[in-house]
């Protein structure tokens, strides 16, 4: 009697694995040169470790407390009213223009000079693609997020493939107060300089560029006929009675400045993706055309909710500043209490902080350019995000305090 032999499952599994590996290698070979350079950010990696260790996450810079009820109600109303299709909500532009006039005294045409985008990130990306061409240089007052670096890297890769050279130049700020060195700025310009990017109020340091520093930057831009692009996402979150001044509000600068900002931080809605660019008409038109081709429109229900957000009374913004100052003082006092003066390798330190204290911070290197001159500064800092609820900050304080030794200093037993 014939009996069929049973297949060698181990052999088949081995063949399947080899086939899968071969298929994976072939697909990876199809990736662009830019995609091959991208890896998970340090914040992503630490957040994964935080989840495994059930740690308090002070690494990611997004609020973990509720958004204002009046704007959530507006979003729900818009969804229930079937605001579901592609649309441009002109009223949002009108209120952005009104706020710009109130804060900075600038007259902006909401019909031609404002573009609503999918967050500040898209506004920034569309602006860069609108103004940078082959052979031009971009000057960046040092600070960047991984998202911004991706945008700039993508543009640089595109221009490089088109025959252009490397074009980003970083102008470092001087610690510990992160002051602008005017000589360093002036020496960085060349005849190829096309644009300068400024982030104020500054992430992650909280620095607000003062009027004297802004006048230095404005003067350099005007003498060199350079476009300025500003990231003003934290425009309503300042500390110690400092006031934010937009570079565009200085004499002669509105016609050569693109402001990018968003609802994200001011209203604790980082996932809603409502941002904007305010620009001279010709640049705004280019940004709008690129935005439409990339994403068509920002989420329409949240565009509608933005109307409610932008109509918020002055008391809302005053309370926001007070709340953030309180959170800043809370984390500052905690770190001072545990003697936060030490020599450490930031990546190793934050990993041990997760494992031993159950609290997540992020190495400061993620906010510096990787060139050698930035190495020393980038290895001296870590960031604690305090845009968190009082409960989260209290939990972090309790967990870190458990590692305080008899002398009152934080003690971590580094294993690496």
TrEMBL record:
Keyword NADP annotated: no
Membrane-spanning parts: none
InterPro entries the record matches: Aminotransferase_I/II_large (IPR004839), Kynurenine-oxoglutarate_AT (IPR051326), NHTrfase_class1_PyrdxlP-BS (IPR004838), PyrdxlP-dep_Trfase (IPR015424), PyrdxlP-dep_Trfase_major (IPR015421), PyrdxlP-dep_Trfase_small (IPR015422)
Keyword Ribosomal protein tagged: no
PROSITE patterns found in the cross-reference section: AA_TRANSFER_CLASS_1
Keywords: Aminotransferase, Pyridoxal phosphate, Transferase
Any one of the GO CC terms: cytoplasm
Pfam family, one: Aminotran_1_2
Cofactor list: pyridoxal 5'-phosphate
Single Gene Ontology MF annotation: kynurenine-oxoglutarate transaminase activity
Top-level taxon: Eukaryota
Gene3D superfamilies the UniProt entry points to: Aspartate Aminotransferase, domain 1, Type I PLP-dependent aspartate aminotransferase-like (Major domain)
Domain Aminotransferase class I/classII large as annotated: residue spans: 164-347
Protein family: Belongs to the class-I pyridoxal-phosphate-dependent aminotransferase family.
Protein name as catalogued: Kynurenine--oxoglutarate transaminase 1
